[in-house]
Write a structure and sequence with these properties.
Layout (H helix, E strand, L loop, with lengths): L1 E3 L4 E3 L32 H27 L6 H21 L4 H22 L5 H24 L4 H24 L7 H20 L1 H12 L2
Antiparallel strand pairs: 1-2
Protein name: Zinc ribbon domain-containing protein
Pfam family, one: DUF6320
Keywords: Membrane, Transmembrane, Transmembrane helix
Length: about 220
């Protein structure tokens, strides 16, 4: 039987990694001891959706390059179209691949769009709108959306506290660091984001500290 040295548990069946921590297993697999039936996930629709979306993005990129070549050979707008198309493609691919992990998906989307907004800002000459407006809105908005989903969908707190905590910590620290480094001129969005995220983090620590402790212990094997 396989064994996880990190979780210190025996794992029945034939697994590629530990189902708890995703760590490497030792020992020999034993298919005869499998206690769960093998379920084949229906990936066909997801694959078709990925191919259709990828095809649409490639068509948009090809058309923009063709139009620019024929009518406006000296303009730069196709680069913006290509960048926007790739951003949309990345977001949709991430949403499809993690559609069953809603909390994790939304957290990853908020972080992805934050990074893409900075890259977009740099590519268009850097006007600081990404760090002054987009990142504070995405981080604080992400915290709010996760809290709403927790209430509406009745997501167990043990499954939600980790992702809410991640966005709360980032939403609290990132704006403060940017303001201390004097990188933002419009400080109000950063102040609201930092204050709201800090308040959320305090609520989590005061009322749900047990869940946060258990989540940290599970993630970092404390």
């Amino acid at each position: 039987m396989q064994y996880c040295p990190l979780c210190q548990v025996k794992v029945a069946g034939s697994k590629r990694c530990c189902p708890l921590c995703r760590g490497k297993l030792t020992g020999e697999p034993d298919p005869q001891s499998e206690i769960f039936p093998q379920v084949v996930a229906p990936h066909r629709r997801a694959r078709v959706a990925r191919r259709i979306i990828t095809l649409c993005v490639l068509i948009v990129i090809a058309c923009s390059i063709q139009v620019e070549t024929i009518w406006h050979p000296s303009s730069n707008w196709p680069y913006l179209v290509i960048a926007a198309s790739l951003c949309a493609w990345l977001a949709v691919m991430l949403g499809i691949s993690r559609r069953r992990l809603l909390m994790q998906n939304l957290t990853a989307q908020a972080l992805l769009f934050s990074i893409l907004s900075v890259a977009w800002d740099i590519g268009t000459g850097w006007h600081a709108w990404s760090i002054e407006w987009v990142i504070p809105i995405l981080l604080l908005g992400g915290v709010g959306v996760l809290l709403l989903l927790k209430l509406i969908l009745r997501v167990p707190m043990v499954d939600a506290v980790g992702w809410i905590g991640v966005l709360s910590i980032l939403g609290w620290i990132a704006p403060i660091v940017l303001m201390l480094l004097d990188k933002v001129q419009v400080k109000l969005p950063s102040m609201i984001c930092s204050g709201g995220s800090f308040l959320t983090l305090v609520i989590l620590v005061v009322f749900f500290h047990r869940y946060m402790r258990d989540e940290a212990a599970r993630r970092f094997h404390l």
